[in-house]
């Protein structure tokens, strides 16, 4: 793994930490929506910004890393609406996470 990819992953982890920290949450979020189980993280997908909670193991998968790179190119690390937003359709994201889930089993 190259140094640039490691630096990018470190930046993504910092952003993810800010996204999931209690002080970074909006006041209008419900407490159920703000809860993310240990070992998981939340992403927002598609134009409607539908929220998905996925296992952190996905971060190590090349296809998911491609999505993160795409998100970085699209939004950078300081997205104005907050949260980690993935710029793909919900159908594509569901297909990808289904594939990743089946490979973990």
What does this structure look like?
With 105 residues, the chain is of the alpha+beta class. The protein has one domain. The chain is built from four helices and three strands.
Helices and strands in order, then pairings?
Blueprint: H1 3-20, H2 31-34, E1 40-45, E2 50-55, H3 62-75, E3 85-86, H4 90-104
Parallel strand pairs: 1-3
Antiparallel strand pairs: 1-2
Biggest pleated-sheet summary: 3 strands, mixed
Percent range for β-strand residues: 5-15%
Order of helices and strands: HHEEHEH
Q: What structural category do the secondary elements indicate?
A: alpha+beta
Task: Report the count of strand segments.
Answer: 3
In which range does the helix fraction lie? 40-55%
| Radius of gyration using CA atoms only | 13 Å
Indicate the mean pLDDT: 78
Number of folding domains?
1
Low-confidence stretches: 19-28
**Envelope shape:** globular
Summarize the structure.
With 105 residues, the protein is an alpha+beta fold. The protein has one domain. The protein is built from 4 helices and 3 strands, in the order H-H-E-E-H-E-H.
